Structure formats: structure tokens, C-alpha cells
Amino acid sequence: xxxxxxxxxxxxxxxxxxxxxxxxxxxxxxxxxxxxxxxxxxxxxxxxxxxxxxxxxxxxxxxxxxxxxxxxxxxxxxxxxxxxxxxxxxxxxxxxxxxxxxxxxxxxxxxxxxxxxxxxxxxxxxxxxxxxxxxxxxxxxxxxxxxxxxxxxxxxxxxxxxxxxxxxxxxxxxxxxxxxxxxxxxxxxxxxxxxxxxxxxxxxxxxxxxxxxxxxxxxxxxxxxxxxxxxxxxxxxxxxxxxxxxxxxxxxxxxxxxxxxxxxxxxxxxxxxxxxxxxxxxxxxxxxxxxxxxxxxxxxxxxxxxxxxxxxxxxxxxxxxxxxxxxxxxxxxxxxxxxxxxxxxxxxxxxxxxxx
Amino acid sequence: xxxxxxxxxxxxxxxxxxxxxxxxxxxxxxxxxxxxxxxxxxxxxxxxxxxxxxxxxxxxxxxxxxxxxxxxxxxxxxxxxxxxxxxxxxxxxxxxxxxxxxxxxxxxxxxxxxxxxxxxxxxxxxxxxxxxxxxxxxxxxxxxxxxxxxxxxxxxxxxxxxxxxxxxxxxxxxxxxxxxxxxxxxxxxxxxxxxxxxxxxxxxxxxxxxxxxxxxxxxxxxxxxxxxxxxxxxxxxxxxxxxxxxxxxxxxxxxxxxxxxxxxxxxxxxxxxxxxxxxxxxxxxxxxxxxxxxxxxxxxxxxxxxxxxxxxxxxxxxxxx
Lengths: 356, 321
What we know:
The complex is a heterodimer. By secondary structure, chain A is α/β, with parallel strands linked by helices. Chain A has helices spanning 2-19, 25-30, 66-81, 100-109, 125-133, 159-174, 190-203, 223-236, 248-259, 275-283, 295-310, and strands at 55-59, 85-88, 113-116, 137-141, 152-155, 178-184, 211-218, 240-245, 268-271, 289-292, 321-323, 329-331, 337-339, 344-347. The longest helix of chain A is centred in the N-terminal third of the chain and has 18 residues, at 2-19. By secondary structure, chain B is an all-alpha fold. In chain B, α2 packs across α11 (240-250) and α3 crosses α10 (203-229). Chain B has a single domain (31-307), classed as ABC transporter involved in vitamin B12 uptake, BtuC. Chain B contains 13 helices and two strands; from the N terminus they run αααααβαααααβααα. A two-stranded antiparallel sheet of chain B has the order 1-2. Chains A and B meet through α1, α2, α4 and α5 of A and α2, α4, α6, α10 and α12 of B.
């Protein structure tokens, strides 16, 4: 009884507060967006030499993730080319909050730049701003942080190009006909969602009028869950002709399920995968073609971009250029983005040339 | 002799040693910004540990706290998205937390189920509800004046506001536990529940109250967590119940109930937090950090028992304890 009275009282109090007006979402969103914190006063000097002894730190989504390890290792090796020091630290789980303490630690340790693959674009924002207040440059790669919280984002491929090319790749293999599905990572993964938007847009074009997207499933970048989601998709949609899985975990789990099922040879699977994970499925003809960018080049470019920022060659403004070692000259695009290049398609004829 | 060998005093001494060692040997450790961050990072765990201490002293446990935190965070996100004012959301969400605690408490006291089993069940249940509420979405864009309240320091100190609130609540909890009849009744329940019952203590009523308190605090911690990270998600605080219980045990509270001090628990929370911060500043990998925390925990559970064993083998000296 007493607790019920208490509940009623609190509810009343709450209502009272609302009646007096409170802070709602519209109050916040209507406020003018703040200008990017990057120091507008700083001038880029494209001819400035790369400073020796630059200290870089890679903060991946999680450590011991094979893909992130390849990216970061290439970045650390690139740092040696310009006499810099680099290291990789990170949490063992890819949750939003676990990167935060690492950002604080790296800030205290006084690095010149932090390179981060953000688990949550907004959760990392506050600590990154604190790091920038101490003069540390922030380069996001693989998965972006909110743009006002970093200097530059190294985009592995133009999101539009990834999204559209995945649909083109699949359409070509299913003959532009039939039901298709998407197996994504988590429902809030920034990069996957952008790609899916472009896939949907590509599908509205007339040449895909006989193709129908029936479902977007989420395997949460978890091997087991992706495996069962694939199974679920194929049972729920018996007429399914193709699956796109734009995540390395998802596409390999889906391939593993299909290769051992009656759907092998019936359902076309493509997506974004690594050659080592996909080799056996390409060889046993479960998968004909899949795509990805070169993760080594991603880490390499991120490292050089960070060094260029620290040395003052660039400030992160659109149109600035810098030399990224063996990758040649690169230009910063809109919103401080640098695009690595078009996605690369792997198939039986070329997969053995790659080892990652 | 007995006084010096008390475990909570040892933990306090260890804490001082870690702090002194860190300040001397690790640059960047004893700075205002780092300590402020390290303390702020402990805020939610510390808050929940207060209520957990009372429960464990009374020989109960609440493993669902992190899930209540996640549910609270998810609700904050969903209601904020729906256009409710934050000033309305916070009391509502805290009320939901109290209800979660009430469910735990009723299952334990009315049906006589073990709290370990009940709260393992609600751990899954409440986390599941969190996903029902918000799915895999993340809600951001909270009002800056409130997110600042969860991050900023009290002016002129390196103590973030949530930690200042913790200090206030810790004083209240400490007084309640160690200087009132209510506090003594918790020790009585934890030491010998039946004896406590026959001594006239309203055992079930008190336990129910403790569970409601635990749920309420966990939900409030969920609000702090959400504002501190500026991101409401159903998976927020995943697994921190273990950090809370580790801190409580490390602080010398007996898992069988009836023993322990709040001071020990606070030292335990700080020790785990500062040690982790120190290890990270020295580039010790996550795996080794887990190994260190795990070993510390085992030592903390083992040592008091060993000491008790040593003492019981010794001839009893009256008045020496």
C-alpha cells in the first residue's frame, strides 16, 4: 500500500514538473549546431616536412578482431616509414562505453594523434573533445565518430560506391530477378546502415524492377547469430534468390551455413569479406564473387593522414592535399573525409593473390 | 592484532600504496584531469555498490543491477525520442527501477526463492526488456546542461558531480549501516536470519526494502550512465554487476552475510578503479587487467578465511581482538 501511495505521489510530482515545461528533444535539436571545434586560425602548410618522432595510437573497435588487427598493423608499419612511433590499444569487447577509458588514457599519455574506429559515434565524442582541447589530433577510420569530434575520417570506400556496387554484383549473378535479403551487422552500425540506404536506392532503378528486397536481418557481427539468422532467412523466404552481407563476420557465417545446406548452388551469396575467411567458400563454389577494400591500405593511409595533421600539412578542411607515401597524393573531401578508393572484387581467379 | 589484520583496513592500505606508487612512477596518473576521469568512470559502479553492500550484509545479492541500468538507459532513450521532457523522464525511469527491485524482492521474500537464482533470472529478463524498449538503436543528443552535469567537476575540485552525489549518499548509507538500529538489524539478518526474526526484526519487510533500494539506485545509475556517455542504448552497462560485486567482496563484505564495512567497500571500488587506470596508463593489455582483478578478488575472498583459520588454531586470548 505504502509503495503505491509513493508511486502515485512521484507520478504527480513528475506531471507537475512537465506542466511547468521541461527540456525536450525539440529544445535541443532546434538549437543551432555548434561550429566544428577545429582551430580555424591554424593554416595548412602543404610543404611542411613530416615531423620526426610523431607518436600515434590506434584504438580499434576491439582488440583481437582479425580485420582490425590487419588495419592497425599496417598503420603501425607505415609510421616507421616516417620515423614515427605507433601502438595499438583497445578494449576486448566492442561495446560503446569500453573505448572511453582508453581515450582518456591516451590523452594522459600525451600522444600526438589518436586514430579511432568508433563503436558509437556519439558516446566517444566528449572524451575526444577533451583530447583535442589538449592539442591531440583525432583521425577516425573504418567507423566514424560524430564529425564535430574528429579532424579527419578515413573512409574505406565511398559509402555510395559500396552500397551500389554490392547490388550490381548480386544482380549480375541472379540475372536481375527474384527476392533478395540483406544480412547486416548491428542495427545501429553507422557504416552498414549507410551502405544499406544506398543499396535500397540502387534497387529503385528500372533495371532492378524484378528484384525485391524482402528483409534486412541483423547478425550483430556475431558468428553464431549471423549463422542462425541466415538459416532463418532461408526458411522464412523459400523463394529467396540472393543474400548480401556487407560485413566480414556475416558473410563468412552465411557462407558456412549455405555450403553445408541444400541451398548451396541455389542461393547466391555476396558481400564484404576477407580473402582468408572466404577462400574455402569461393573454392567450393558457395560464393562466386565478393568485395572489400584493402585493409592494409586503410591503416597505411590513416597513419599518413595523422602524421600530416600533426605536422601541419593539413588541418582537415575540404580541398587540402597531402602525400600518403606509396598511395600518392590524397585530397580531403567534404566533411573532412578522405576516401581510400573503390571496392575491389575477389573471385576464384584472383583470391590466391591475397593473404589477409 | 585483530584490528590491524582486518581485511578492509588492508584494502585501504593497499589503496594508499597503489595511489602513492602510481603518483611516483606513472606520469599522467596523479593529474586533475586523469583522477577526475577515473573517479567519474567509477560513478555508476560506486553508486550501485552502496545498495549492494546493504544486500550482501543481509546475506542476499542482486545480480540484476546492470540490467536495470540498461533498461533505465533504454527507457531514457525511448522516452526522450518520444518527445518527453528530461525532467519527467528521470523520475519515471527511477520509478521503473524501483518496480524492478520490488519484483526481485517479492520473489525472494514472498516465495522464499534464493536471491541468486531470482536475480539471475531477472538479469536476463530486464536486459531483454531493454532491447524490447529500444532495440539495437542508440539515442543521442541529450541536453548539454544535463550531460555536463554528469561529466563536469564540482567547481574548484577534481570531483565530478556524480561522485559528489556518491559521497553524500555514502555518508548517509554509512551512518545507516554502522550507527543505527536498522544497520544492526541487517548484520543480524545476515548472521542468523532466524535469530533475527525471533528477536523481533521484520526480516522480510527489510529485505524487500533493500531490493527496492537496489533497483532504484541502479535505475538512477542508468540515468547518470546515459548522460555521461551521451548515448542511450539497451546494452549500456553490460556486465558491470560483476564489477560491483567484485568491489563489495574485495572490500571485505562476507558473501555469507553478517560481516563487512562500507568503508571497506569504498576502498574496494577505488582500488579496482585506480588499479585499472594505472595498468592502462602503463599499456598493460585488457587480458592482463582481467587477470590482475580476478586474482585480487580471489585473494580477497581467501585471505580472511585463512586468517580466521590461523586464529582458530591459536589458543584464545581474551580481550586481544
